[in-house]
Amino acid sequence: xxxxxxxxxxxxxxxxxxxxxxxxxxxxxxxxxxxxxxxxxxxxxxxxxxxxxxxxxxxxxxxxxxxxxxxxxxxxxxxxxxxxxxxxxxxxxxxxxxxxxxxxxxxxxxxxxxxxxxxxxxxxxxxxxxxxxxxxxxxxxxxxxxxxxxxxxxxxxxxxxxxxxxxxxxxxxxxxxxxxxxxxxxxxxxxxxxxxxxxxxxxxxxxxxxxxxxxxxxxxxxxxxxxxxxxxxxxxxxxxxxxxxxxxxxxxxxxxxxxxxxxxxxxxxxxxxxxxxxxxxxxxxxxxxxxxxxxxxxxxxxxxxxxxxxxxxxxxxxxxxxxxxxxxxxxxxxxxxxxxxxxxxxxxxxxxxxxxxxxxxxxxxxxxxxxxxxxxxxxxxxxxxxxxxxxxxxxxxxxxxxxxxxxxxxxxxxxxxxxxxxxxxxxxxxxxxxxxxxxxxxxxxxxxxx
Amino acid sequence: xxxxxxxxxxxxxxxxxxxxxxxxxxxxxxxxxxxxxxxxxxxxxxxxxxxxxxxxxxxxxxxxxxxxxxxxxxxxxxxxxxxxxxxxxxxxxxxxxxxxxxxxxxxxxxxxxxxxxxxxxxxxxxxxxxxxxxxxxxxxxxxxxxxxxxxxxxxxxxxxxxxxxxxxxxxxxxxxxxxxxxxxxxxxxxxxxxxxxxxxxxxxxxxxxxxxxxxxxxxxxxxxxxxxxxxxxxxxxxxxxxxxxxxxxxxxxxxxxxxxxxxxxxxxxxxxxxxxxxxxxxxxxxxxxxxxxxxxxxxxxxxxxxxxxxxxxxxxxxxxxxxxxxxxxxxxxxxxxxxxxxxxxxxxxxxxxxxxxxxxxxxxxxxxxxxxxxxxxxxxxxxxxxxxxxxxxxxxxxxxxxxxxxxxxxxxxxxxxxxxxxxxxxxxxxxxxxxxxxxxxxxxxxxxxx
Lengths: 450, 450
Known about the structure:
The structure is a homodimer of 450-residue chains.
Chain A: E1 5-10, H1 14-25, E2 30-33, E3 45-47, E4 53-55, E5 60-61, H2 66-74, E6 79-81, E7 87-92, E8 95-99, H3 108-125, H4 139-142, H5 147-154, H6 158-172, H7 181-190, H8 194-198, E9 207-209, H9 215-224, E10 228-229, E11 234-239, E12 244-248, E13 253-261, H10 265-268, E14 272-274, H11 279-285, E15 293-300, H12 304-307, E16 310-318, E17 321-326, E18 335-342, H13 344-351, H14 354-369, E19 378-383, H15 402-406, E20 417-419, H16 432-449
Parallel strand pairs in A: 1-2, 1-13, 2-10, 7-16, 11-14, 13-20
Antiparallel strand pairs in A: 3-4, 5-9, 6-9, 7-8, 11-12, 12-13, 15-18, 15-19, 16-17, 17-18
Helix pairs in contact in A: 1-9, 1-16, 2-16, 3-6, 3-7
């Protein structure tokens, strides 16, 4: 029986492209069907008028993300460190303070409260098996409450809890009320610990791509050539013991011996499957919502804050921006502040008009970095919840009860359907590195099956 | 411009059919597109070989559900009371005990614990505005934790907490870990209080339909005649200021001045909208999963338990069945025990083979009602999570953080798209009565808009 390819891959993000690359390397033919007019999924580069590249999507690599560094090397991409010289800023209780190191001067009570909570989280996280979080010693109890209620009962200070909220927004693009304590612990373990997730130098925000992170996908796609088909939203997957037939919105159909679905779980749940998927799989994808983030960039003639001894990094009780980074290009040919609008703030800002969004974001920048920050040469933002083929970032989170009741269905292939995407990774779930792991695993599963 | 109808309704459940009926009564033309080969949605009658009708889906009405009683009267349907004579059974701690009234003999400590918790829930529930739960006095705190973590911190006894779990399974078909305290409180208020939700006589399980509850939908559909089209799964809704164009899987398209989407939120989220819906609406439907329930019926020559002074009602720590009702027909021409497999148990039982499911369910019946219960004349069960066009029952529940962050998007029309379905009701959300309320409101919104 003649197929269009040995394996069809749904989604030309890093996960899907890596899967296709590995399968091709093993001599199988692939066909990658991508809904968008571009590859890269949640990675998206944008070239400013002066040919400076910014990442509207995922952008960082950090220590222990060996797969991501290896792929970057393999594809000839260049990394450079996120700027971290100088002091950071914190806007807390209406006052701006400068601080060195990773934690602002919260006062001794809040510092102790926050530090104790982080130590507890790290200690519990180590007990969560990455391939089976439901087997953690207190899995059911940890999955019965939210990170917010845990913090409410465990912590004593407003500022300490605010630190946990900032962590939640920065890492999950969600509020601590939205996911279970067990998911928080899994994710901390998956990313190598609290500091590994949150630090810039020595952590997940350490390095950036000169060419933009999307270049990972662009170069993989270039290798695959015509095997990648754009503008092909998959609407239906018919599957049987012998193979699959994948239909796109335009009515085109493609057959293969197996299919790898490499898109976020909530979008995978919108595809029609024939025969229908088992109840537990369908109910899983009803329960893995995406976080919400708007990345906001203000471009200045130069990184003027550096002249004042500032790193450009800031944490702020300043709605809608709670986190700011210096995102200038490696040669500092211009200065770029990157503000994150995440979780609840992203939902509110998603609904307001672009002009208002610009104004309130720049107001936060000005409160932190002075009036000069209010007048950038350019401003651009990107709302990932409005992107139809992502519908949120950075990734999916697991509300209470989901890991323990539905976790087993996350990676388990269903006949000739195999699941990929960073949400299916064990290490660095939610990150580029996790996407690569998932693509490699999915390719391996297909090779074993066929 | 000629349209196929003034208003298209997606979904021929009670909500959609009521909306269509009301619009027709106001002189508008409608077209009801139903994915299944039948009407009724989560209501489904089944005729046993001896012409006894059983409800595989929703089946009960109770006091204060005035809309449902009125519709039943209007359509000429006949109600009869759920059988409640005699004593109930409780299987707790490995022992079966008989009890009268609504609460088993838990021991004084557990009784007090459970009673206090219920009183607290009722008191807090009254403070939740039904049209805007996010405006409750402690909305953010109540939406930051699960019902399970609230019970963990508030209650002191294992049996008391087990009572809350039974409540959660019986009313939400979900575990108390899966939804927020705020949602539990909203739902309790929406259904008129804890006892109103849980009681048989005087509560939501009081009355049954002689003809089966699906007859509500069957008779409404008969009135609408050819305006109801079966086997028409809607895959895409194009919408503009002037009207809508609705496409079905077969490629047929229908135009109208407005559309009412009257299906569960998670399924509404799987339709493609053009232009795409606002981020907050899409993220809402990512976050409203359905509960899980398998209804299990064992049919005997007569309701033999009645001869022993038993009502047939039982609560049981006996996996997978935690709740049993006498579901015999009004003339008791045969005896029917109805066991509910809900929440976590439903997920596990969904995956096992039918023969095993039958065996373990009948084992529970036998432990409660004696060996005779192990040998029914017929056994039938129905897994609502496996139904492709429901994907769970009884309804959707709201995980932590959803009401406060996304609740406003639940009912708000988007241009010419109006939302219906029991999940959009303020009173008796999740019930037939709520479905009718939602259909009436949706019809009114369309009338106001056009």
